[in-house]
Amino acid sequence: MDWKRQSGRDIQQLIFRTTMSRIHITFVGGQPIPVYQGITATNPNKIIFIYSKQSEDILHRIKKAIEQTFNQQKMPSVETISLSPTDPHMIQEIATKLSAAHANDDISLNITSGPKSWTYLFGIQFCKQNNTTIFYIDQNNILWNYSSMEEEKTLFPDMKTLFYLQGTLPPTQYIDFKDFAPEDSRVVMQITELIHVNTNNFFRLVALARNQTGTTEFSLPNKSFLRWNKTEKSFDIQITSAREDLRHTLKSPHVRQLLLKAGWFEYKVAQILSTWNQAKTIWTNCVFPYANASAKNEIDIIVDTGIKLLFVECKTQIEDNTDIDKFKSASENYGGKGCKTLFITEKRIKDNALEKCRDNKILTFSFEEYTSDSIAKQALFNLLNNNFFNINA
Question: For 158, which DSSP code?
């Protein structure tokens, strides 16, 4: 800046602005993620949380997440104000007091969360002040500045922070897709070949191995068999049909997960999604705990796109429609209202299951509808790209 060209009044105004505090006022309601994003986007000197008794637990989680995000030297000061969600006189009184107390500060007001009564009455008060920026953050992380009518991107929380904000513990078990070994990929290819020889015999053997503990060898009358080699930590499997016999030795770091827990299909889906241009991080076989650490729910695949999360349920076929309700509930619980959901199957999805998925706003995809995996891959990417940035109602 050329100080010589500045008038005395300009310099005085500039000095005044640099000594102003950055005050961030944010409503705390049922959506903690945009509250967190608003704070990190504005980097304030002070945060004023407006909350109700109903959102007290969410406020606690947001404060903890902010403490972990900000360096202690840069941690903003915090003020909390408990406010009625309905009493217009009380809401107007607090809005008037805050605007007067910070008339000489640089104010940002995040109206994304909280009740509409706060948005309306605080908006009436603060829109009069030139020192206030009022904004809203949508599900695609766009910060809409309603004061200047401009927009900008905000940062999406990392997955562990997001789960904490949602009030759930991160998965106690998961496999980052990048941690799968080349041997795992080869095992998935071998499993696919075995299934093509005789689908029924393959799944009958796997069901026997999954349901009978302490046994290492399983066989069918048609000479199909499955053996677990404890020493080699590998499976020897033969699938027989009227046309051919196929035998493979399956050995890899995750072979038991891939064979016995249908991980081969999840791996196939995750491998395809890993080449999607929106995918940043992919976790598979995610097990979420209760507070006492017992298993609570399993999500087959979670894709972090840096914009929102995609939750994927993988099944060869939907046999029980209650699985759809469970999947929808779990994904919203862990990922928030803005996450996207996909139910993906090997076999064609039945009409009643398709209708239930549509009712729950779950995207669906079946490999059986396509003549090759390469065609299916492009169709899946088209489906995701056409729906991913839609705002959930």
Answer: P
Strand partners, 217: 227
- Under 8 Å CB-to-CB from 374, ≥6 apart: which residues? none
d(CA 161, CA 157): 6
Tell me the fold of 3-155. Answer: Rossmann fold (3.40.50)
Q: What single-letter amino acid sits at 248?
A: H
Name 18's Cβ contacts closer than 8 Å, sequence gap at least 6. Answer: none
Interval 251-280: pLDDT, tens = 999 999 999 988 999 999 999 999 999 999
pTM listed for this prediction:
0.85
User: 173-179+262-387 sits in which CATH class?
Assistant: alpha beta
For the purposes of burial, counting CB atoms within 10 Å of the CB of 359, is it exposed (0-12), middle (13-18) or buried (19 or more)? Answer: exposed
Checking if the pLDDT of 301 tops 70, the result is: yes
Q: What would the pLDDT profile of 95-122 be if each residue is shown by its tens digit?
A: 999 999 999 999 999 999 999 999 999 9
Q: How far apart are CA 123 and CA 366, in angstroms?
A: 47
Q: In the prediction, which pLDDT does 309 show? A: 94
Region of residue 285 (left: phi > 0; alpha: psi -120 to 50; beta: else): left
With b for 16 or more beta-carbon neighbours within 10 A and e for fewer, the 134-173 pattern comes to: bbbbebebbbbeeeeeeeeebebbebebbbbbbebbbbee
Domain segments of the chain: what residues? Answer: 3-155, 173-179+262-387, 182-253
At residue 1 the predicted structure's pLDDT band, cuts being 50, 70 and 90, is very low
First vs last C-alpha separation in the chain: 47
Reference 153, options 41, 233, 60, 276; nearest CA is 41
| Calpha distance 161→320 (Å, rounded) | 33
Distances (CA, A) of 154 to 6, 38, 144: 34, 8, 10
Please calculate the CA angle 188-194-195 and round it to the nearest 5 degrees. Answer: 90
* 338 DSSP 8-state letter: T
Cross-strand partners of 245 = 240
> In the chain, which ranges are continuous DSSP H helix?
8-18, 32-42, 56-69, 88-101, 116-126, 159-165, 182-197, 199-211, 255-260, 263-273, 322-335, 351-359, 373-387
Nearest to 340 by CA among 363, 368, 314: 363
Inform me whether the pLDDT recorded for 351 exceeds 70. Answer: yes
